Model the fold of this input.
Amino acid sequence: MAKVLFVNPTVRQEDNPLHIPYGIALLAAISDKKGHQVQILDANAWRPDDDELREAIKSDRWDVIAIGGITTTYGYTKKVLKYTKEDSPKSLRVIGGGILTSMPQDMMKLIPEIDIGVIGEAFVTFPEILEKIDKKEQNWESVLGIIWRDKYGKSHLNPERALISDLDQLPYPAWNMLPMKEVYFKNSSLLYSEEAYSSKVRMDINGSFGCPFICRFCFHLGLAGDLHYDNPNNDQADTIFTHNRINRVHSPHYLVKMVKYMRDNYGTDFVLFFDENLLAMNVYMKNQWLPEICRLWIEEGLQPQCTKDNVPHDPKKCKGVHWGGTSHATLANPELLAQMHEAGCSQLLYGYESFSKRILKNVGKGATPQTNERSLHMTLDAGIRPIPNQMMGFPDEFFDSLIDCVNAWERMGIVVKPFFATPYPGSEWYYKYKDKILEQYGYSGNRESDYLEALDAFLIDLGDATKITATISQYFTPVELLGLRELMVNRAIKRIKEYEKHWRSLHNIHGEPSFDDVKWAPAQQKRKDAGASQLANIKL
Done:
């Protein structure tokens, strides 16, 4: 059987390792169940220096060294694959996750050490790769959902793979292969709610894949039915992302059984749902999914004692498992929130994005300033702490939208420090504003080498969303966005209006500005239209 080393790349070096690598832990469990020899080098947990990293790579004769993650891990992933080729040249080098799925052809050019890239969901694809390794086969043409490099260095994109229909067939993540006690439990505390802050043994789960909304800043990267190829008959084609969705959930029985396992075997006291949007998925499941989870949570004895007794939370006395996740402002309702609180939900993160009517309309989230405000008060009334999340620097951001946000914060009595709107690969914004993005990293539309150099610089620059990378704002420079955010946080509306007068004088703009959208490049528009038509009738 194959000897496999999974590498979890470092995520946000400036922060503690807070969350388990859920996808890698699932693939490790699947591979282990099939009899392969599996180890995980959790670089995000241990933070090894380069010498320690290379020693781990050289520590055995690995058949496969696999790494994956989101685009923000690009710099570390590139380094790991370089060391792998130098220190373990006979190993097959495999990459997966959003970092590859969002731009497979570009990634194969940017990182020549890649042998195979897994596009989209890897639960079936990766075991097939290992099976071929066992049989000593090197003909990758038959494996769906991969991009691979031939002996001449040329990349080939194989036909896409369908998503699995039943998530409950997945095993539990391989927690036993991760430094749970040594690292993750020590970083259990999260400053989101009293219950999360006092947690000693927090664990994370993923109850669903997908989201029915089409937020233009968001990316799904092959897990929600939105992935397709711009030309299925051309192995030099690339991936595209449409508004089509195939949303999938674990059954309530599966999830509650998993949480019981966590509590019984690890003493878990808090569970954080990784799901993109719990309330959205509940609506997708005809409003029956979350209520059934709540019912089973209580029935199986997971309800926190403080909630059961209706008393303030005391971590020294409270038994049971508190939990939290994500929500959507338009979908919050008192009855559901009350059920969730009774079952132990202590926090919900709301992506409010903005309190400007214009901004929210163009983002495509389906929310309004009024639904944003209403959801916060409704959630507080239910006994759940709402976590407001916002961005700034949208394409149509202007002084009025910034002031709208500050006024809303004042009315609601909340403190927010917005993230910067970032066009991550795989999002609609990335493809729509790609020329503008790369121009900011020195690309002028000439040679491919210049394009790759600019793209490489942009990807390395990605990371913490509080940091400005490429801006897509029509009217504000990065320096202006940094300064304006500070004024917003300090509620300095007077200063914002003063700068607006100065800004209008500099740019000779008086009255309402024109919010002209940056147009799609012809090739990108063609890819988008083709993908939309090809996906229209696809079902699992």
About this structure: The chain has a mean pLDDT of 91.
